[in-house]
Amino acid sequence: MKKMIIIIFLMLLVFILSILSIFLSGTAKSITVEDVKNFILYGTTGDKFKDTILWDVRIPPLITAIIVGGVLSVAGLILQTLFRNILASPYTTGISSGAILGVAISIFLGLSLPSFFDINKDIIGGWIGSGLALIVLLYLAIKLKDTTGVLVCTLLFSYLYYGVESYLISFADNTQIQEFWMFLQSSFFAPKWKDLKIMAISSIIFLLSTYLLSKQLNALLFVENYAKSFGINIKHLIVIILFLSGFIVGVIIPLVGIIPFIGLASPYIARIIMNTSDHRWTIPASILIGILISLICYLISIKLFAPKVIPVKSILDLFGGMLVIYLIYRAEKRNIINL
Description:
By secondary structure, the chain is mainly α. The chain has helices at 2-24, 33-42, 48-83, 95-108, 121-143, 147-170, 174-184, 193-212, 214-220, 224-228, 234-256, 262-274, 279-303, 312-333.
């Protein structure tokens, strides 16, 4: 009962922050609280100009922030479960870096990548890059028994990916460099409705698939022999977890840029406030906490130096970095780096 109350409370906070984001994410003072209320309840403010501002300018970044915060948190949660280490996340396992490399190749080499169902070419590049990073990660996970060693190696491979990007930048023209630089800054304003549809469909597939794996993920928290006693094929489960993580990161990162720390901090906080590692509870809690962090960073980025917008990555690098240092210190003190 207590856990359900916490979930409901988190949902209420997400709802409040979402409404605030719609109202605060802009400089058009003509849009009032009444306008926002009418738009939410009736689908229109009664003014086409205001409707356009809300629908095309304010709603897309809000939905982007919600999707990004939710899915990256769950991706971090399942990777932490797989490696039994609280430092695992799409950012630290090199999956994000691989996706970024795929986007870099798409931009700098101007490759004519195949387009499926009108999918953004950068997403195709991100899938290819994250797929290559997953192959490296899977190989290391099979060969190395120490999970900490796997994470260290994937971080080193991230530097290799960055090295390739630097090489590509050296031979790029100014237009390509500017495009890649803008991509690296991270923005919830970049995705439009066409992109949001792809993000939403991919996120639903990812989240539903992950939740259906709750029983297997719970078993994976224990030793492998214990998990095998439940009839779980560990190798297949590893491949599924890595595939799901690479799939969603390959969609999100090419559209919004680098979003660090959310996938690392949210699962940790979820376990603390839910007082359990049961994925039936930590998955929804991680989703909601990730959304809250994402929305808070979004509001700070647009209001701190308004009308100038600060890249979301800058906010996460500053506050997320300090938060992660604290979490690592707390975890080492309690000897829970490994789950």
